[in-house]
Amino acid sequence: MFHYYCIRTILKQNESNSNRMEPAYAQNRNSLLNRLSTQPEWDLVVIGGGATGLGVALDAGSRGYSVLVLEQADFAKGTSSRSTKLVHGGVRYLAQGDVQLVREASIERGLLCRNAPHLVKNQTFIIPIYSQWDRLKYTIGLKLYDWIAGRLSLGASVFISRAATIEKLPNVKTEGLVGGVLYHDGQFDDSRLAINLVQTIFEQGGHALNYVKVTGLLKNERNQLNGVMVVDRETGREYTCRAKAVVNCTGVFVDDILHMDNPAAQKSITVSQGVHLVLDKKFLPSEDALMIPATSDGRVLFAVPWHNKVVVGTTDTPVGEASLEPKALEKEIAFILENASNYFVQKPQRTDVLSVFAGLRPLAAPQKADQETKEISRSHKIIVSSSHLFTILGGKWTTFRKMGEDMVDRIEKELNWPHKRSASRQMPLHGHMDGVNRNDPFYFYGSDTARVKKLINGHAGRWISETLQIHEAQVIWAVQEEMARTVEDVLSRRTRALLLDARESIRMAEPVAQVMAALLGKDKAWIQQQVDDYTRVAEQYILN
Ligand SMILES: Cc1cc2nc3c(=O)[nH]c(=O)nc-3n(C[C@H](O)[C@H](O)[C@H](O)COP(=O)(O)OP(=O)(O)OC[C@H]3O[C@@H](n4cnc5c(N)ncnc54)[C@H](O)[C@@H]3O)c2cc1C
């Protein structure tokens, strides 16, 4: 324990030396919760702290509205930490003829590269080509993709020779290989972006809380919504929050909130699961990502370099129930391994999988009874109930900002508020820094990197995982600056240990819990509970 008292003392010294004004999100949780009792009314209360809710709050805050985000678990605990990590126009949507969605997403991709350059990078993708027909088809298709993005294109697509393709993708199947089509898209870290969005929302005067669940909706005598009932999931304490507009951004849980408003409400979404496998970099020893344009079920499959590993996915499987911890099905795992193996010389086996994670897509309910989930448009949809519950569903991480802008425009219109201009398009997000060195293990903190390093150098901390390059100082940072409350918050969403190597992350749980306990004033029983809870979750990310 002595070690952790040292940490706290040095932290205090660091803070007093820097004369820094403490940002609101770095206050202790009680101060953040106090605001729930003291704020008489918010302009907007946003239910759900995933990409969509944070996009709405970002945009509302940029217009000067007072906004509160309430998340029942951790920020990005749901779908928003389980994406393929692409900020993309969507080559697949182009093949489906959804030009408008591709155009919208390409613009947002360009804006996000500018607004969060420390987290979003220009990623080259290569489609390996095995026939002259495919060469023609994909060369033309990707030229169209470039053209749709216009000025915000990340670079021109080109056909590259067989030799260049093999040099760039050393593990690619060479038999019958004609060459490759190289194109550009964006790649990012989803939950890190969510955390930076929370910080940005605070910095523009908004407020956000994790582990606070909305349990009911409040209405006035005209049956119009005017607030929400919530419970702090750590203490069980209940609060009432008044709001001029209540926004339902709960992803695959939107129907639960719609039912609170109207028990007879129709089902608005259908849920589709997508799974990813994380492999060692030896399966894609390259800076380039691989795109397989036609798998055995007619989808695309990506293998994307990410934090020194490779993320391979995804699937599209309809599922009946929404859950915060969805489980990969055996057939999805087999599908990914089989399709990746068709393109790799060194073929990945089950034992090579470092982590398997599943996410759920909240898709607008199908128009036709026999429509497959992969055919349902990924564009977003806004529903406004007669009591003015504002619900948004569908969409993509890439378009989160535009979804927010559209929602706030709609609220202004429906509630007859005078229009205020959105400023989220050009808004640099917390951590914004150009030219980060991606070989630096702490690059993703962007403009905070220097402060994280100061913490490392300022005390006798240690690496919690040398293989994943995760340091004790990052745990401290996560608790003090990024609202982490549990071991899982740190290992899954502030760092990405759970997704990068689930076994290694279980080993890290105890040292992480000890550092957190010292900072949060928790006892041994809390440490044990945290380790047990985390292990239970993380075991589901391991393939036996
Ligand atoms: C497999 C897969 C791969 C994908 N890949 C990409 C990609 O590469 N690029 C891309 O652009 N998009 C991608 N997407 C889409 C993207 O991830 C989603 O569109 C986005 O994350 C959805 O965010 P959301 O905020 O709507 O939902 P969520 O992230 O699920 O957030 C909803 C939140 O609401 C909270 N909540 C629910 N009920 C309550 C309540 N009562 N009170 C308080 N909080 C509540 C939940 O806890 C949850 O955190 C992918 C999706 C999947 C499934």
How does this structure look, described?
The protein is of the alpha+beta class. Helix content is 37%, strand content 22%. It has helices spanning 2-18, 29-38, 51-62, 91-95, 99-115, 132-149, 162-168, 190-203, 254-261, 330-341, 400-414, 449-458, 472-481, 487-494, 497-500, 502-520, 524-539, and strands at residues 42-47, 67-70, 86-87, 121-129, 158-161, 179-187, 207-209, 212-219, 225-232, 238-248, 269-280, 289-292, 301-306, 309-313, 317-319, 355-364, 381-384, 389-393, 463-465, 470-471. Strands 3, 4, 5, 6, 11, 12, 13, 14, 15 and 16 form a ten-stranded mixed β-sheet that branches. Strands 1, 2, 7, 8, 9, 10, 17 and 18 form an eight-stranded mixed β-sheet that branches. Strands 19-20 form a two-stranded antiparallel ribbon. Helix 3 packs across helix 11 and helix 12 crosses helix 13 (472-481). The longest helix has 19 residues, at 502-520. It is globular, with a radius of gyration of 23 Å. The relative contact order is 0.15. Residues 47-53, 70-73, 77-80, 82-86, 88, 213-214, 249-253, 274, 314, 324, 359-362, 395-398 line the site of flavin-adenine dinucleotide.
